[in-house]
Structures are given as structure tokens and as C-alpha cells.
Amino acid sequence: MIVCKFGGSSLADAGQMKKVAEIVRQSDDRTVVVVSAPGKRRKEDEKITDILISCHDRAIRGEDVSDRFAAVRERYTEIARDLGLGTDLTGVLDEVEADIRGGADRSAVVSRGEYLSAHLVAAFLGFEFVDAAEIIRFSDEVTVDGAETDGLVGRRFSAGARYVVPGFYGGFADGRVQLFSRGGSDISAALIARALGADIYENWTDVSGLLSADPRIVEDPAPIRRVSYRELRELAYLGANVFHEEAVAPVAEKNIPIQIRNTNEPDHPGTTIAGLDERGADEAAGGPSARTTGVAGRTGFRTVLIERSMLSKDAGYMDRVREAFADAAVPVRHAVSGSDSLLVVCPAEPLEAGEDGLKQVLSGKLDAERIEFGSPMAIVGVVYPSRGVHAGVLSRMTAELERSDVRLRYVSVGESPHTAVFGVDEGNYADAVRAVYRGARAE
Fold first, then answer.
1. Residue ranges of the alpha helices (H) in 30-180?
2. In a domain, 47, yes or no
3. Cα gap 71→361, rounded to integer Å
């Protein structure tokens, strides 16, 4: 059984929806389809969600929403007409507009893009529509009740039937709608896949899987054909814009593979995310010579250098330093220590906000002899499919950084057994990514 999710770019117009239908109909195993709201057809298009938000804002001010909602009505009606649907969506559209006029809350209004999209796709495929608010149960504004959701999904879906479900939202027991955060439709599909014990969760979008580096920085980066859940988390932690962690966790619990596929290139294998052992991950990444999975990073960091004689002999010093940073609401991203020094890497924004108080605590209560706040910095890291950093790869990466005239602020190997991290001046970020990528991929 396959649960498949289609993003907004896959549903932007009738032509895209026909591609979706062809993909779904290729296999009887694709029994549940989760959909986003239609995406932009062209740059100047206004997002359906943005139009709905403006409708809600007008309604709560007591203003007429007819002209704004007309854009929503026109978009869905046009797609239905171009698909040749005999089904009249007027009733569903009227219901949504009436709810907005009647004071529906913001979450309920914003969710109607996906709600209408699911009605449209269900009609086109001839599948049954299921409202996500009936099967995905929130216990509070941010927490999904996993056990209750599993039970509701199990009772609602029948073997042999095929369904379309709107993504991006669920509901409370009293019927109120609650939205997910970023990547909400991905999370919806993952929860349903877990509840049904699906064999595969397919995520259809407008890219052919994950890449081993940011294509805006690295020209033509190698595709990642297969990656483990752990490697994906490491890449996301380093800064890669990859699959949403909350969409991975539900299926990872049951070891359900995720396949990221391209609606516009349905024959492309894309990327498979699965729970692999170390040997499997290494081989799947391209064989024994492929010692790295990907390179990622981000800007927006600064360092704090703390020096004190015999610091390394004070067993509880690091705990007290972390306490001081926590009290100042400054997260600690990395920490590298020496005999008399400790280098702490933090996000720049909270550090700058709490700098004065932090300096006072470190110098006063912790007897720091010298405290130095560093200039803006970026982090660039590489993820390995198996444990341990390969010395040859590490030496090639540092050689490429030197060749690119990138000054290293710090190097961390071992905080995670699967990553190596380089700190560089923020202005050298792009050059550092390219250099690390060249070193990581060279044979």
C-alpha cells in the first residue's frame, strides 16, 4: 500500500492535475492521496492561502468578502472546467464562503485551500473525500495525539477503497481545525502512512529528489539516491533545506521508506529515505568510494572564546558555562575546548541580545580571565554515511579550503560520529561550501 502526497506545484492547474491522475492510476497500490492547495501557475499569481487570509481579515472587520473570495472561486472553477469535470463545485465553494462570512476562525479559513483542492482531486479521480479534521487529532496547538490519530485513521479507511485527504491541518475533538507549521501536508501524509502501516510514503513535488549540496551555490551537485533517516537529520541540523523532520518521524517509527519524486519526471527514481544500517547506507550512497552523503551549512553564528588557567581541570566548568548561556537564553550550537580555553559557537541573534548579561556572568561568577566575542561566522559541514571521518576526505576538504583562501575559525570532528564541521568567516560561506564539496566528492 502506498500513501502519496502531492505538493502545490503538482496541483497548480488542470495540466498538472492530469499528471497527478496519471501517476495515481499507474498503480492500484496508491490508495491514499494527500494534497496541498494549488500552487502558483506563474510568478504574478497570488497564493490561495494569502487570498483566504485576506478574506478572513475582511470578515472580522465586518467588510464584504465577495470580491476577494471571487478569486478563490474562479481558480477552482477554472481548474474543474479545464479538467472537464461534470461535478459542480459551487456547493462546496458556497459553503466555504458562508463559513468565512459567519466568522470561522483563522485556522479553519486558511485550511480551506487544501480542503477545496481535495474535493477537486477526489472528484477527478473518482476517490472518496475524507476531511483531515476527522482523522488527525491534535491534543493542543502543537501536539498531535498519535494514538488517537492512528485509531481514527484505522477506523475511517477500508481495505480496497481509495481516498483523497487534504493536507496541512487536523482537528480537535470538539471539531475545531488546527494547522500544522511549515511542511504541514508532508506531516499529514506521514501520519496517515504510519497509521495504515503503508509500505511506502511517496512525496511528489517539482524536484527529482535531494541533492548533495545547495544548487544555488554548487553547480550541478550530485543527486542523493538513498539516504538514511539519521543522515537526513544530520543534514537538516547543518542547515540543508531537506525534508521536514516532523514528516520523517512518524514513518521512521515503523521504518516506512519515503520516496521523494518529481511529478514532472515520474520515471526518475528520485531519493529514497529509509532506515539503513551503516554498511547499507555506505553502499547505497554509491559504493565504498562514496564516503560522504552531502554538504550543508548556514550563516548567522558567532563565537565566544572563554579563557581561564587550568580550565580543563575543572570537571564541572562546562556545565556551569552551559547554565550561564541557558540563563541568558543563548543556545549553544558547538563547543570546542582546550587546556585553558573553551570556544562556544552560538546563533548570532540571541547572542547579541544577551551579550552584556552573559559577559557579566562569565567574568564574574565563573572567573573567566578573558572573554572574546567573535565576528560573524558561518558553519559548513559534511555528513558521512558510516561512522568515523575518513582521514583522506578530511585532508582533501581542508586542502580545498586553503586553495580557496578560506580561513578556518575552527574544525570539529567527533561531536557527531557522522559529521565534520568547519567554522569560517561569514563572508566566505559560499566559497567554503564549494571547497568542502569539491574535497568531499573528489576521488
1. 48-60, 66-82, 90-101, 106-110, 112-125, 146-156
2. yes
3. 57
Count of the separate structural domains present in the chain: 1
Residue corresponding to grid cell 572563554: 306
Answer yes or no: is 342 within a domain: no
The whole-angstrom separation of Cα 185 and Cα 131 is 13
Assign residue 145 the CATH number of its domain.
3.40.1160.10
Query: How far is the C-alpha of 117 from the C-alpha of 123, rounded, in Å?
Result: 10
Give the pTM. 0.84
Q: Are strands 2-6 and 30-35 parallel, antiparallel or unpaired?
A: parallel
Predicted local confidence at residue 222, as pLDDT: 92
The string of DSSP letters for 188-237 reads: HHHHHHHHHT-SEEEEEESSSSEESS-TTTSSSPPEE-EEEHHHHHHHHH
Instruction: Give dist(CA 19, CA 11) in Å, integer.
Output: 9
The confidence score (pLDDT) of residue 168 equals 94
Contact by Cβ (8 Å): 149, 135 = yes
CB atoms within 10 A of CB 25: 11
Position 422 in a domain: no
CA 199 – CA 185 distance, rounded (Å): 19
Highest-pLDDT range among 25-34, 183-192, 247-256, 342-351: 25-34
Q: What is the pLDDT of residues 301-317, one digit of tens each?
A: 999 998 888 776 777 88
Q: What does the pLDDT look like over 307-363, one tens digit per residue?
A: 888 776 777 888 888 888 888 889 998 888 888 888 899 999 999 988 888 888 887
Q: Give the residue numbers spanning the domain of 189.
A: 2-206
